């Protein structure tokens, strides 16, 4: 009895699906086919494969070996990996505040009655458009200890030259300044869009109540921009975890691993040491960290939305 | 007081603009200078020459890399526009089984960072025999989630009467998409097009992994390896010349279409 009922239900389910299929737009299946194929081959399959690799030891040449949880244990104990994570945090500790303060300052000035606004906007956005390869190759020279532009200016001013990229306590911050320079144009545009959305009546009401310009900035502008500030924090954090070309070109991760980024360490494990399983494990750890950061910041974003 | 503030604002902007433009001018100037004059703040020299550029052309196949980059970026961008708008159209205007599931998958997979699948993707490319081919650079980049989302959103805003009228005239869905929707979606096409092209043009990590032969390399990859790999040695002028050549096409396009660039990249940066 029971089996018959199940069968019947299955049949009716099947019939329903058939009806649905008949009444659907068949061309839709063909139109989404490229995406489905792309998803299966270039997203789903690599994801599953990456997950399997976490539990394997593999140098690409010889056959894969099951390694259990050894990759994960190794990651926990790997001081080099944690150095890379710490380097990312040191990078963000300078990059994020610097980015927000400068981008906001420039956006506020640009939002005023300024001539040549589109020229300035264009100038600030230029480095964002240009390849990271160009920017890093160029800045490597600007940072050069003997003949770099920064040290030329410093020595002209009577100061001592700074070993921008060769001192382990400075190098990652030099990279952070460069990354700020490259990306700030993008964040200026975001802040500018946010500033233009602040209702004028708020300022008018505030000045009737006798609030001066700086009070207006701290009490109206800044709180209303907080969703954008958080977006900036989120995007720069994700960008910071993805740091690769900068240390790859400028320092190779040195001196003394002080600029080694997580992605560069992943790259080295995979393509220099041929530790594919371990590299995949680093990839998962990286994705997990990005995911957690995004989640936390999304939560904050929801809570603090003032509109 | 007012005037003071205004002047202060201009000083801030001018100083900032100088810090953003001067390094690029310095790069171009250094690419033209003899080595012993590069360590200077002065942008001009009486000894400007094209020696740096000559060194680049004789030491690496940079012209080939330029053609490779143009080909790869153009084809990827064209594919992204066609395929993403097709998927966006299906998700926005058609009814079929699994439509909402697919849209959710698009949204979900957008959050996956590329570094996660880097290793398996490399293995896949090697197994397919695609290492050192254009396929390795183009095929995985033929469709974009961000593109699908932008097109779907825009296509949903177009009036249904357009579709109905076209159907009565016997127009197929492909006809509606490419004949009626495309001409109306120039802003979306520009946004997705510029973002994809610039992203593809500037990409370094992926080519570094799947391309090893010098004559298959893209330009950013080759210029990077030229600087890092010691090929350029201590020739700073040659390095700057290579970097200048890599930047130039984008800078020229940017000068002409600045506002499109800013709007497109800002918009897709937020969505992506």
Topology:
The complex is a heterodimer of chains A (307) and B (272).
Chain A: H1 2-23, H2 26-53, E1 56-57, E2 65-66, H3 70-77, H4 79-111, H5 117-129, H6 132-142, H7 149-156, H8 171-196, H9 200-208, H10 213-224, H11 226-241, H12 245-250, H13 262-271, H14 276-304
Antiparallel strand pairs in A: 1-2
Helix pairs in contact in A: 2-14, 3-14, 4-8, 4-11, 5-8, 11-14, 13-14
Chain B: H1 2-32, H2 51-59, H3 62-93, H4 99-109, H5 118-127, H6 134-138, H7 145-156, H8 160-168, H9 173-184, H10 186-202, H11 205-210, H12 219-228, H13 236-256, H14 258-271
Q: Which fold does the CATH topology of the largest domain in chain A refer to?
A: MetI-like fold
Largest sheet of chain A: 2 strands, antiparallel
Based on helices, strands and strand pairing, what is the structural class of chain B? Answer: mainly alpha
Find the CATH superfamily of the largest domain in chain B.
MetI-like
Oligomer: heterodimer
Write down how many β-strands of chain A occur, each being a DSSP E stretch of 2 or more residues. Answer: 2
| The CATH topology of the largest domain in chain B | MetI-like fold
Bulk shape of chain B: globular
Structural classification of chain A: mainly alpha
Question: How are helices and strands ordered from N to C of chain A?
Answer: HHEEHHHHHHHHHHHH
CATH architecture of the largest domain in chain A: Orthogonal Bundle
Count of folded domains of chain B: 2
Number of helices of chain A: 14
Query: Unreliable segments of chain A (pLDDT under 50, ≥5 consecutive)?
Result: none
Mean pLDDT of chain B: 88
Radius of gyration of chain A: 26 Å
Number of strands of chain B: 0
